Amino acid sequence: MAAPDVLVIGDANPDLVLTGDVVPAFGQAETLVDSADLVLGGSAAIVACGLARLGVPTALAATVGEDVYGAFVRDTLGERGVDTRWLRTDAAVATGLSVVLSGGDRAILTFPGTIASSGPEIIDQDLVASVRHLHSASFFLLPRLAEHLPGVFARARRAGATTSVDTNWDPARAWAGIDRLLDHTDVLLPNAAELLALTGRSDRDEAARVVLDRGCQVALKDGADGGVLWQAPDLVTRVAAPDVAAIDTTGAGDSFDAGFISALMAGLPPEECLVRAVACGSLSTRAVGGTAGQPTLQELPAGFRAAPPT
Q1: Lower CB density within 10 Å: C or N end of the chain?
Q2: How far apart are alpha carbons 286 and 89 in whole angstroms?
Q3: 128, 157, 163, 231 from 278: Cα distances, Å
């Protein structure tokens, strides 16, 4: 098999998505929810699926356990067209699991399992030096791997690859250790809360400038408002979100990432990368879970009427 164009590094686990009245009442009270769906989760896994759905040859480097959840992750990734040759199995640790409480807003309860046990052993250095793009997700869920990522990213860039990072949320609320990785990153892909927390700023433009000063652009996921791209302090692009009847927003930010990276791989200018990112993130909300609603490349023209970049 040929080497993939994109390598995604990070987390892979099932999500149990509960919708409806999902706010628990303690004291042994039972609350009925509208639905419960077991779907593929993990930011890295969802990004990889989104890229494959868009026709980009993509591999995932992650770890699962030798258990029913691990088999579910491996099978689902394969069905979605993701190259799983670098998906490692750890027989000593259970596969991670997230419970997503989706009722307007979302809350996520995560058992780290094999996510936290993933270390530098999941990285194939020859593969890193051969791909066109390297993406890392869920930095703060990967304590054994995080310290090695700056070196991995530096190797990829020396070989001519572009790079991107989506740190996702920090459960410890410390937001530390990311600076060295950003020094080797072309694009940071946060949401607004993550951008402000990562930089310690209260204004988004000021926060973006902190990242830009490290030589890294910022492509911000702005929820129902679409997305914002900072290429320089005075070069800012905003794209409005399309009108989509959203069913579940789980993984929408990861599909945004996949859209941006796929456009980058196609040689589109940064502004058009943002347009595709917003389209993919918005359209992914059409179904429950992070991957079921992800669009194909052919769906994008018919399924998205974006405001022009400004």
Answers
A1: N
A2: 32
A3: 28, 26, 19, 17
Eight-class DSSP state of 293: T
Q: Can you tell me the distance from the alpha carbon of 284 to that of 252, in angstroms, rounded to the nearest whole number?
A: 6
Return the sign of the alpha-carbon dihedral for residues 102, 256, 198, 153.
Answer: positive
What pTM was estimated for this model as a whole? 0.94
Q: How far apart are CA 296 and CA 298, in angstroms?
A: 5
Strand partners, 242: none
Cross-strand partners of 220: 228
CATH number of the structural domain 6-22+34-303 = 3.40.1190.20
Sole residue written with tokens 């490349």: 297
Helices (H), the chain: 43-53, 68-79, 114-117, 125-128, 143-146, 149-158, 179-182, 192-199, 204-212, 252-265, 270-283, 299-303
What single-letter amino acid sits at 46?
Answer: I
Tokens of 247: 């069913």
- pLDDT tens per residue across span 80-100: 999 999 999 999 999 999 999
Domain residue ranges in the chain: 6-22+34-303
